[in-house]
């Protein structure tokens, strides 16, 4: 069984078709540290998980200490590329959702640092989802594919049903 863990409800963006609109986040069951060992993989999501980078790193550490679960990160964060790079290097896989044109240059810079300083990062799962708002999508795709990312040019979905083998819970501090 896989866990989707809401680490915060806060985000810098207000995407009109944000998947969270399909869920009542307040009603999500709370997941505590002792629960992590039940899951094969844990996907850290938000809001923006890097809204509070310190808390995200603590959660990653707690999972590593109490479980063998693979850890995946869903993020769209580019405000501080050092924080983004740190998070990517601490998890088993990252999906970056590129929603806005303004995030393209910071993401390219972060990827350049990753490729130069963390060559083993290519052995991890790196996925880039490019949304319609990013008009230069086709021009940057090759750059990420060349450096080990699986790139998908995607669309906003009207519905986001949870996969059968996945549960959606929230961290106990998700609303702080
Ligand atoms: S960046 Fe992600 S979490 Fe934030 S509003 Fe957009 S879709 Fe929702």
Provide a descriptive summary of the structure in words.
The protein is α/β, with parallel strands linked by helices. The protein has one domain: Aldolase class I (TIM Barrel), CATH 3.20.20. The protein has helices at residues 53-66, 81-90, 104-117, 137-146, and strands at residues 2-6, 30-31, 41-45, 70-75, 93-98, 125-130, 150-153, 166-171. Strands 2-8-1-3-4-5-6-7 form an eight-stranded parallel beta sheet, covered by helices on one side. Helix 1 (53-66) links the parallel strand 3 (41-45) and strand 4 (70-75). The model has no long low-confidence stretch (mean pLDDT 95). Bound molecules: iron/sulfur cluster (SF4). Iron/sulfur cluster is lined by residues 11, 13-15, 18, 20, 46-48, 76, 97, 99.
Beta-strand proportion: 15-25%
**Measured distance between first and last alpha carbons:** 27 Å
Indicate the percent of residues in helices. 25-40%
**Total E-strand runs:** 8
The overall pLDDT, averaged over residues, is 95
* Rg over alpha carbons: 16 Å
Small-molecule binders here are: iron/sulfur cluster
Q: Concise description?
A:
The protein is of the alpha/beta class. The chain has helices spanning 53-66, 81-90, 104-117, 137-146; strands at residues 2-6, 30-31, 41-45, 70-75, 93-98, 125-130, 150-153, 166-171. Strands 2-8-1-3-4-5-6-7 form an 8-stranded parallel sheet, with helices on one face.
